[in-house]
Fold this sequence. Notes:
The complex is a heterodimer. By secondary structure, chain A is mostly helical. Helices cover about 75% and strands about 0% of the residues of chain A. In chain B, about 30% of the residues lie in helices and about 25% in strands. In chain B, a hairpin with a 2-residue loop joins β4 and β5 (about 70). In chain B, α4 packs across α5. The longest helix of chain B has 16 residues, at about 180-195. Chain B is globular, with a radius of gyration of 19 Å. The interface between A and B is large, with 34 and 42 residues.
Amino acid sequence: MTDVTSHALSKKAAAVNSSLPQRLLRATELDTRMLGMVGALAVIWIGFHIVSGGLFLTPRNLWNLSVQSASVAIMSTGMVLVIVTRNIDLSVGSLLGFVGMVMGVTQTEILPQWLGFGHSAIWIAAILVGVALGALIGAMQGYIIAYLAVPSFIVTLGGLLVWRGAAWWVTSGRTVAPLDATYRLMGGGPDGAIGAFWSWVVGLIACVALLLMLANGRKQRRKFHFPLRPVWAESLLAVMGCAFILGAVAVANSYPWPSAIVRRYATENNITVPEGGLFIAHGIAIPVLIAVGVGVVMTFLANRTRFGRYVFAIGGNPEAAVLAGINTRWVTMKVFILMGALVGISSAISTARLNAATNAMGTLDELLVIAAAVIGGTSLGGGIGTIAGAMIGAVLMQSLASGMILLGVDTPLQNIVVGIVLVVAVWLDTLYRKRVK
Amino acid sequence: MDTGTPLVEMKNISIAFGGIHAVENVSVDLFAGEVVALVGHNGAGKSTLIKILSGAYKRDAGTILINGEEAQINNPRDAKKYGIETIYQTLALADNVDAAANLFLGRELRTAWGTLDDVAMESETRKVMGRLNPRFQRFKDPVSNLSGGQRQTVAIARAIYFNARILIMDEPTAALGPQEAAQVGDLVRQLKTEGLGIFLISHDIHDVFDLADRVVVMKNGQVVGTASTADVTEDDVLGMIILGKCPPGAIPGPGALQIAA
């Protein structure tokens, strides 16, 4: 075991000789891979901004980008866990369509019969139906995968066909529209955002939470006499984190309502619009808020609970997990239940955004979701992946798509670019992992 | 030593995989403070027998007694409840997580909130690893980054941390250099004096005679014979392994070569 001592020695030597960025990384203990992804995202954003002549990095475009990313980002958090357990879910796109149709019919045709049209409980009932249905279907697929030992690729490939067919069956292909007014808020838009004041409140709460988390981590480390991060590194993390959160809020708050909606709002509330127009900010969109919430909850599940620990252990070595006494089948089934429930949430956002449920909704979403997870650093071999990475991956994919739309790139070429980026990203990741080892 | 109730008694254990009798009518016992070596060729059924005791396989027939009472062992969790810990030949580590996560896999320490208490687990891991290998420092690395010896230490730490009464070691020194193997030998002797019963599976006949009190030889899924290591020679044991020939000092089992008298 001489390598341990030599390792420690070389570490010490490296600390003396290393450059400022290296010392910075070591002191802050930030994940270099994640930083690389953020860097890639920055390059893409700035690149599009320059090429499009200053259209990309505008509050309006970034706000829309955030709303467009929400649905795939939410599903990608579940896909990370699915792939980490060495499974795959090809059915999420079709499932999104089917659940969306059921939620659409529930709120426009079934519930109004009992509650009356426009009843205030309809939206929540519809969402609950959607999430429960998604979880139920996830449970069914998970049961077949975990207990009947049919490969997940086959089960969910079957699901891809079954649920797309089922989505058509709900109304024989008829589009369901318009949807409940409250439900629609989940899709974003001027009404579906929380406004400047509440956005700041959310931002401040997030900052306080970040500071508390850092402080608690430090307290825990001190309690067990572990090496602490230098104070300057902790402060830097806190400042950077808060700056990012408040910066995002500021961007959301500098995207104003369109003038026509401001005028309508003004007449409804008896406000006279001053010369030069009234500035009413969108603030954070509700679907984005939901996505961030899902991201936080999923990160917590993955990193801080037994369930998450077991998910990663199964991915690392299924046999070891069984020998450690983990009920691997039940954990696998739970992963698919979770995936289904997340599809339910995404489906609510997608249908609300379109203000309609169609049987083609979510077509090919499974590929976007898998691509987001994989670009975000999830290894198809299992055992490796992060929730945050997958969500950044989702934003990255959406950035490419919407950037190319801004530039007027033809759809076929868009697909070609996205396909190439996916392959190159995974190749770079492979290189990175080899070097780190 | 053969007085009182054995710590473990496996009686008439059989298991078959698709018509192949991997273990057939095997009976072995183990007393507290005793090391019993299981030896035999590859495929003789040693690991299978031991996996039945550790709950990884379900036996087709036979009974397991722990302290004289019949034990219900249907999965690894059950076995651990009886204080049976196992160091597998494959180590059975989740390569993608760190030493602490592996040590507590399936038995995580949790905070008052029910969340994982990673700091406490790391602290405990530092203590137990410090005892086994004071130079070990890579607590944050996934175990795939560790050397063979370090991985073995993690597997051993996991087995002894939870106050095992019965320890199963399947080829514990296979991945180790001579110095580390000697350390494991010392550990076995120390645990023995603490009153643990140890099943040792080994291919190294010198190891067996060095560490074990008794030796059980298996061939083709059956017991050839059981002997106290004081009563037989290494050549006798080799004869049992290769030919199934039971020497005078050993108690013959069902698998012993029947010599036409």
